[in-house]
Every structure is written in C-alpha cells, then in structure tokens.
Design goal:
single chain; 350 residues; alpha/beta; seven-stranded parallel sheet; globular; disordered C terminus; binds nicotinamide-adenine-dinucleotide; binds uridine-5'-diphosphate-4-deoxy-4-fluoro-alpha-D-galactose
Length: 350
Amino acid sequence: MADTILVTGGAGYIGSHACLALLEAGCEVIALDNLVNASEESLRRVQELAGKALRFEKLDLLNAPALEALIKQTQPDAVIHFAGLKAVGESVAIPLTYYANNLTGTLNLLQALQQQGTRKLVFSSTATVYGPPDKNPVNETAPIRPTNPYGQCKAMIEQMLRDAHVADPSWNIALLRYFNPVGAHPSGRIGEDPLGIPNNLMPFIGQVATGRQPLLKIFGDDYPTPDGTGVRDYLHVMDLVEGHLAALEHLANEPGCVTYNLGTGTGHSVLEMVSAFEKAAGIELHQETVGRRAGDVAELRADPSLANDELGWQARRGLDEMCRDTWLWLSNNPAGYNDDEEPDQKHALQ
Ligand code: NAD
Ligand code: UFG
C-alpha cells in the first residue's frame, strides 16, 4: 500500500498502533490529534519502531479552517477517523461536550474531505451502538439502540456516513464496530495510557497491578454467565488495526459503504480476565466483588463472520497474548508515557 493516509486521533491508543501498522505497510502517514487524551511521545515511539517518519499535526477537528487547509495541502488518499471522546460515564455527565466534539468534529472532517475530493474513510464505531443485545453473538443486522450519549454519537455518525454515501456513491466508507480492544504492541513501547482513573476493565487491572489503584472491584457475580461475572469479547489491538488495513484494501477493490463487527467471537468473563492477567504478570491482584455497575449487560459478544468472509480478516491473538503484551507495556512503563523520557525529549517530534 503506497497511499497517503490521514489518521485522526493518531496519537491515541488505537490510533498510534494503526500509524505504526500503516508505516510498516509502506504508507505515508499524517497523524492528527489535539492531544486532549494522548501524548506526542506515543508517536515518537511509533517512528522509532517503524524506523520511519510520519507527519504529526497538533490540530483540533473543531478548527475547521485549519483542518481544511491541512487536507488541501496533503491531499490524503484515505482517512482513518479515530478522533473522539470515548468515556461512556463522562458522556452521560457532559453530553453536550460529547455531541459538540464527536459530531461537529466529524462533520468538519467530512465537509473538508468532500471539498478537497478525498472520498475514502474508515470510521471507529463501537459495539455500544447495539445497546443491550437480544441474543449473542451479535451480528451487524442487530437493532441499533445505544443507551448513552457516547453510543448515540457513534450511531449518529454512522447514519451521517450512510447518508453521505447515498447522496454521493463515490464515498467509500467502512464502519468498523469494535468490541473490547485490549493489549499493546509486542515491543512494549506503545500501549494504552488512560488519563485519570480508568473505567474499563483491562486498564483498571493494569493500574492495580502497577500500584496506581489499590483494589479491583468486580462489578457483580450474579449474572447468568458461567461464573456469574460479565462476559465480553476482548480483542488484541494488533488484530484490530489489521482489520483497518483489511478494510482499506477492501474499499480499494470493492467501493461502497460497509459495516463490520471487529471481535473474536469468543467471550471471556471478568474472572477469566483477572486470572489470565495474574498468570501473565506473575502477581496476584487485590480484588473485591461489589454490586453490578449500572447499565452493564451480562454478555456482549461479536459475530465476526462478515469481516471474516468479506475482508478476509480474523482475530488471531488469544487471551494469553493480550495479557502478556499488556503486562510488557505496563511493566516497562508503569506511569505510561510520562515515565522515562527527559522532559526536553517529549517535544522532539518532527
Ligand atoms: P483515545 O482517546 O486513546 O484516542 C482518541 C484520540 O482522539 C485521542 O488521542 C484524543 O486526543 C483525540 N481527539 C479527541 N477529540 C479530538 C478532536 N476534537 N480533535 C483532534 N483529536 C481529538 O481512544 P482509543 O481507545 O484509541 O479510541 C479510538 C477510537 O475508537 C475512538 O473513536 C473510540 O470511540 C473508538 N472505540 C474505542 C474503543 C476502546 O475500547 N478503546 C472501543 C470502541 C470504539
Ligand atoms: N468491570 C469490572 N470492574 C471494573 C471495570 C469493569 O468488573 O473496574 C467489568 C464490567 O462490569 C464488564 C467487564 O468488566 O462486565 C468489561 O467492562 P468494560 O468497561 O471494560 O467494557 P464494556 O464492555 O462495559 O464497555 C466498553 C467501553 C465502551 C465500548 C465497549 C465496546 O466502555 O465504550 O466496551 O467496545 F464501547
């Protein structure tokens, strides 16, 4: 692939792994991020791992003129659109901020692309658009009924993109609904570095393991699941980014507007995650079972067969690899990207 790809949210968790995979696939990469939830250090390490430079633009999608100027100047062949705010609980507390950032940001992006002639886009959607499932595994025809503003934004953006494609079929769009991304690059150099106290299971486990949190709370052990704890479809971030490359290739060969679940199809309970992580890290996690978390479902698991069939994509990495790579990242970087760099190296990105 010799294309120029604009990666919005490129400094973030999934975006940084995608930038690396794109550089390794021979693409020119423009990483755009306002750094509201990321550090430039991730991209410095991406370039170090790839042995190649990318172009970083510290830019907010809400700054429409600057965004348009960047797209006009760089003329990307395609965009992978990761940028957005993503915390479910926060989206309930400050919904207008979420709607403004995620919807207006995306609208600005689409208008700039439309004006400048770029028509190929891969969008980060989420299994959250499904809301509570009627049955598992969930396939792409399941009803869309998100239960929080974060999920509403994703569902609205999906609709915006489908409408843009209907009005102008030269738009080539892949809507990728991620299940639960975890893990890190196997080098241990890049990984997930959440700001503040994490809500999600794996980053929380990581903070307990590294002593930043005293105790893991297990939210409910009375679900109708094999061990009573919640079951999710955890997916290695390296498999996830491979799904994006497969989607770009698919759009090049078969233009259209397509939607795919990206998950493994296999569910793991909270207790299974805890014991797999303990095994990988060789430590015991302090834990306590508490009541259910409001809004949680017992089980959410993907049917990934459409992506298997049409993209030729399949998640290849299992739970042990997810936990091993998470632990390598955490044990090498217990305080995330703030760890080991001299202050003046942090802004050395070209
Ligand atoms: P992340 O927060 O690490 O990355 C998102 C990036 O977008 C951040 O670096 C942030 O600084 C940037 N950003 C936010 N608003 C911006 C704006 N207005 N302008 C420019 N940059 C902006 O999150 P992630 O986990 O890498 O997620 C990437 C995408 O995948 C998000 O859209 C998220 O909703 C989606 N997603 C994530 C998960 C998950 O569990 N991680 C699951 C499903 C979907
Ligand atoms: N859990 C705990 N303790 C914790 C955190 C989580 O027991 O401290 C449990 C939850 O109750 C659930 C499971 O671990 O049973 C997974 O919880 P996460 O918060 O990691 O994941 P969710 O599936 O609930 O939701 C996440 C994100 C959404 C995203 C969705 C699908 O919050 O934004 O995955 O990708 F959209």
